[in-house]
């Protein structure tokens, strides 16, 4: 390739890259909103991350959410997501396929274990579980 042709190709690419870099917004920490307390951190190279399989909240309560994950159990927040607690640590499996709450009794949590999205790293299910106390204790229901 001739030097003149290289200049025709290189110059627009270099100018375009410079313009995009200068036009890109600078990063700033969030000062408001639900994620204001989170701090970015690099956790290094990883394989497949955690998969959320089910999320449920209660109508009229924007702070209470329960999340089921493919291999990390059941997580609960009572402060709109500022902090989370794993409430399914000591059961037969950590693979969750479905989570639901009774809107009239938000402490009643139902969990279907096992995942419907087969992958090479999925875990087996162990039936349906019920918690009458918001995840403090669990009973098998099938």
UniProtKB/TrEMBL annotation:
Protein's name according to its UniProt entry: Glycosyl hydrolase
Q: Which organism is it from?
A: mine drainage metagenome
